[in-house]
Amino acid sequence: MTSRCFLAVLLAAVPLMAQETPTEREAARQVLEKMAALEKSLDVPAFVRTLTAPSAERDRVTARVKELWDQDLQALSDDITRHPEIGFVEKRSVEKLTAYLKAHGFEVKMGGTGPASSLDTAFIATYKGAPGGPGLGVILEYDALRGTQRAFHGDQHSSQGPVGIAAAVAIAEYLARSKQPGNVIVIGTPGEEMMPPNAKTLMHQAGMFAGADILVRSHSSPATRRPAPGFGTCCMNIDGVKYIFSGAPSHQLQAWDGRNALEAVIHLFENIDSVRSNIRPEARIQGVITEGGAAPNVVPDRAVADFYIRYPDEVYLKQIREFTDNAARAAALSTGTKVKIDNYGQDRDGISVATLDEVGFAYMKMFGAGKVVPEPAKPQGYEETGSVSRDIPGAEFSSYSSNFPNHTYGMEADALIDVGHHGFLVDAQAMAAVLFDFATHPDYRAAVKREFTGIKELFGEYQEALRKTYRVPEVPEPK
Ligand SMILES: [Zn+2]
After folding, report:
1. 221 close to 402: Cβ distance less than 8 angstroms
2. CATH code of domain 237-347
3. Which of 20, 262, 284, 322 lies most in the core, judged by the most C-beta atoms within 10 Å?
4. Span from the CA of 270 to the centroid of ligand 1 (angstroms)
């Protein structure tokens, strides 16, 4: 056996896990055994076989997706790519997307509600079919990236609207002609690339995803892939925190009459550096100073540092926050300033289910996806915040749509040529096929629900195990 073969055998024997640290893997051992048993009992390969078998009715739906794409939606995707708008001001893009939905029988409600009422470019578009069926949810994103020269669609969110709409309209038309019960809910979610605010989390708190029994979305990708089942996130659990210091201004030559907020921010960075060695090494704590005074001859009376604090799990992340928040309090105390701690956003583990991801992956291959990665990626939710994907089962459709990495001008350019156009159509067709299966097979819906509920329960068990693991040392009073 060559060492390469040995490595391949070894990799096949080790389940792909979201657990990134030895401590997490130890805490997750029993949970992962139970998850493997759950997956085995679902027999996902059998669902893949039966659902992707020939079906005239499904083929009619996916042919309609292609028709809509070729007629209008590819052009709309190109148009949005050429008119990039950054998060929360995607007015033109949203106008075009909602106009198309209205013209195809959807009822559109603009703007967020409740906790999400500040989101002017959020929307919900609903097609109500016969009562008693599942809610088929499609998430759309449309914000561009903030570039140094200009806004740009380097993550191809410009295509997500047209892709999701092609699937949503085709499936709504199917429900209408077949009298199959069910609703289609298209949820427009602004500012994916920005926080604050965390748009999806606020919209979820406002109940804007209510009624959806499944949620799907597409996303650009340099390769065709899907996640393994389980809980996790692409990029660790994140707390976005602003430390806002206020001091008192005075002349530089009489600085004793003032209190220096910038010095407090500098202390904050130093205080955090001084405890890094007592924090587990997988943490990523990085901040920028967004406000640090206006002039060298005036003592800065306001300074702000903005941090992303990351850890592979949210349980230990809480302990890290105690370190960083205390570092800020200590900085304020020692400089005679005051600090406000604004935890403006958080991203958390989501849940991925094989019943949806494996069927979706098989369809992406069936519709001609390129650059297929055969091994599943680590488990992760289908949206970035984890808040929605841990409450409602769903899937992300990521077929190969660019020869460039995410967040590049190359990926934007690819949205306008064959590699992008083909990938988008694959996503739209695969998405419609999964929605069709979900709408028409109660046993499939039950399996998705059983897998999702099972993994969610195990996620709770895993977090409980972590809570027991991460002990805080006892520090005695000094004698
Ligand atoms: Zn993105």
Report:
1. yes
2. 3.30.70.360
3. 262
4. 33
Measured distance CA(359)–CA(394) in Å, rounded: 12
Residue 474 phi/psi, 5° resolution?
-80, 130
Q: Taking the CB of residue 196, how many other CB atoms lie within 10 A of it?
A: 13
The pairing of beta strand 302-311 with beta strand 284-291: antiparallel
Give me ligand 1 centre to Cα 157, in Å: 6
d(CA 440, CA 424): 24
CB 116 within 8 A of CB 123: no
For residue 192 the two structure tokens come to 């994916």
Structure-token match 């016969």, residue found: 130
Q: How far is the CA of 330 from the centre of ligand 1 (A)?
A: 37
Ligand 1 center from residue 216 Cα (angstroms): 14
pLDDT tens-digit readout, 319-341: 999 999 999 999 999 999 999 99
Q: Cα of 203 to ligand 1 centre, how many Å?
A: 18
Distance 192 CA to ligand 1 centre (A): 7
- Say yes or no to pLDDT of 8 above 50: no
Give the pLDDT score at 18.
76
For 17-70, how does the pLDDT look when each residue is reduced to its tens digit (9 = 90+)? Answer: 678 899 998 989 999 999 999 999 999 999 999 999 999 999 999 999 999 999
CATH topology of domain 44-231+352-449: Aminopeptidase (3.40.630)
Residue 127 per-residue DSSP state: E
Distance between Cα 163 and ligand 1 center (Å): 14
Going by their DSSP bridges, the two strands 135-140 and 214-218 should be labelled as parallel
Give the domain ranges of the chain.
Answer: 44-231+352-449, 237-347
Contact indicator for 184, 237 with CB cutoff of 8 Å? no
289 phi, psi to nearest 5 deg:
-95, 115
Written as six digits, the tokens of 477 are 């009073």
Strand partners, 225: 398
Tokens of 151: 């806004």
- How many whole angstroms separate alpha carbon 242 and alpha carbon 260? 18
Using the mean position of ligand 1's atoms as its centre, give its distance from the Cα of residue 59 in Å.
Answer: 29
Are β-strands 350-352 and 338-347 bridged in parallel, bridged antiparallel, or unpaired? Answer: unpaired
In angstroms, the CA 8 to CA 11 distance is: 5
> What DSSP assignment string belongs to 208-219?
TTTT-SEEEEE-
Q: Are 451 and 351 in contact (CB under 8 A)?
A: no
Same topology for domains 44-231+352-449 and 237-347, yes or no? Answer: no
Spacing, Cα 418 to ligand 1 middle (Å): 20
- 473-478: long-range contacts, CB 8 A cutoff, minimum separation 24: none
Q: Ligand 1: distance of its center to the CA of 263 in Å?
A: 37
Alpha-carbon Rg for the chain in angstroms = 25
Residue 369: burial class (beta carbons within 10 Å; 0-12, 13-18, 19+): buried
